[in-house]
TrEMBL record:
Signal peptide: none annotated. It holds the Pfam family Cyt-b5. Belongs to the cytochrome b5 family. SMART domains: Cyt-b5 (SM01117). GO terms for biological process: lipid metabolic process. This is Cytochrome b5-related protein. GO terms for molecular function: heme binding; metal ion binding.
């Protein structure tokens, strides 16, 4: 027998007028049309947020134009988010309470419309309580902790340079294949490790992400501003950008190829990095001012890897490009497999379509319900940096180094216990099985 929620959810999913789990919110503008890239996501968000060309935080509008070059995190964050609601980003990226006093200086007026987000940040709620305690705890954490993540990232970069060159240089076929595989693994792990730096203020290691031919700037939108802030909702670009080929939200009419996503992803994932590069390049010609506003020198960094391979080995350029192409493709496959098997794609993680316990949940509690941590990954320092470890805490405090997060776990568990938050742990193997089940899931979870 169908539950009442099942009928309601199915009707909302079919009509596409609102979110399924949060019916007070309109269906995201531009979600299912056009190029489905980060710039389109920002454009659609600006249409829905009621920010009136300014920056919105909660129900107030601010003009921080004069603050752009003073922003400690770099101008880019504010440039990208102009005209949108940045409440979730502001709350999760600024732990120091003094930041709110700085923001007050740029107040313009109150917003005219309600926020187009379901999440709340009450002073006595889960997230703000945790944030206050975390801010106090940070002063007790050893200063040298973050150096390990730096060394791991730098080591992977050097390993990529050496292995990619050897893949071109050696004559023996099997040795060349071995170095190609090693280079692909190094590229994938380096890309994950770089993600640790993309969340922070402008720094040189974040540019290493562009060795994939993708763009760290686009990733700041798709991952940091979308996926991290609106995890597993209709506003999560990392879910919508894969549709209709891969569909991670439960839907009754999910086609067969989407239900077999755990197979089709092996055909789709290898070409994502090159596809993203081509999309950005095409945008120069079809979008007004794209070259001026969104394209820069760092979009060409990906070509440094084949240039390095050619200069060091002296191999024919055709051989270099062939080896490089497959290193990028294999690295893309591994990177995205690591991502989809990290924490979110599991039947126990709440998605749009599942019945929420609260239609206006605390943002931090939603993160806990939308993620599962992997205890085997969290036990290993290298795995934490290269396999998206300490994932729940990372989502809530993205600007902190991954290796700082383990020191906050006892405090986090105390706050979870106090608020009865549904924190869960799993293993990497269980997450892989869960991802298979999630791509096949068509049923909505209810609390009936």
């Amino acid at each position: 027998m169908k539950s009442k929620w099942d009928e309601i959810a199915n009707a909302r999913a079919r009509d596409k007028k609102t979110h399924v789990s949060f019916p007070q919110l309109k269906y995201p503008s531009l979600r299912d049309s056009g190029m489905r890239d980060p710039i389109q996501w920002l454009t659609g968000k600006a249409l829905d947020d009621g920010a009136e060309g300014l920056w919105r935080v909660h129900d107030k509008l601010y003009d921080v134009t004069s603050f752009l070059n003073k922003h400690p995190g770099g101008e880019e964050w504010l440039e990208l988010t102009k005209g949108t609601d940045i409440t979730e980003a502001f709350e999760s990226h600024h732990l120091n309470p003094a930041t709110e006093k700085i923001l007050e200086k740029y107040y313009v007026r109150d917003a005219k419309t309600p926020r187009n987000s379901p999440f709340t940040f009450k002073d006595d709620g889960f997230y703000r309580t945790l944030k206050r305690e975390v801010y106090k705890e940070l002063s007790k954490i050893p200063k040298h902790v973050s150096r390990t993540a730096d060394l791991i990232t730098d080591g992977l970069f050097l390993s990529l340079l050496c292995s990619s060159a050897l893949a071109c240089w050696v004559e023996n076929y099997w040795l060349a294949q071995l170095w190609y595989i090693i280079a692909s693994i190094c590229l994938a792990l380096l890309t994950v490790a770089c993600h640790n730096f993309i969340h922070r203020k402008t720094n040189w290691r974040m540019f290493l992400f562009n060795l994939t031919m993708s763009s760290y700037r686009d990733f700041r939108v798709s991952h940091v501003l979308s996926h991290h802030l609106y995890t597993n909702t209709l506003m999560d670009f990392e879910i919508s950008s894969l549709e209709p080929i891969l569909q991670y939200n439960p839907r009754k009419n999910k086609p067969v190829y989407a239900r077999l996503g755990f197979i089709t992803e092996f055909l789709f994932f290898p070409f994502i990095f090159f596809t993203l590069f081509i999309k950005r390049f095409i945008s120069i010609f079809i979008r007004e001012d794209f070259l001026k506003k969104h394209y820069s020198w760092h979009d060409c960094l990906g070509f440094l890897l084949p240039l390095w391979m050619w200069l060091i080995t002296g191999s024919p350029i055709t051989k270099v490009l062939y080896v490089w192409f497959w290193i990028i493709c294999a690295g893309s496959l591994l990177f995205h497999l690591i991502g989809v098997n990290a924490a979110h794609q599991h039947p126990d993680a709440i998605k749009d379509g599942d019945q929420p316990r609260n239609e206006t949940p605390d943002w931090g509690e939603h993160q806990v319900e939308a993620l599962l941590d992997r205890k085997d990954i969290n036990r290993n320092t290298f795995a934490v940096v290269t396999l998206f470890g300490e994932h729940t805490l990372h989502h809530m405090f993205p600007t902190l180094d991954h290796l700082v997060l383990k020191y906050l776990r006892p405090l986090f568990l105390q706050i979870c216990d106090k608020y009865k938050a549904k924190y869960r742990v799993s293993t990497q193997f269980e997450m892989v099985i869960g991802q298979i089940k999630e791509t096949m899931r068509t049923e909505y979870k209810s609390i009936d």
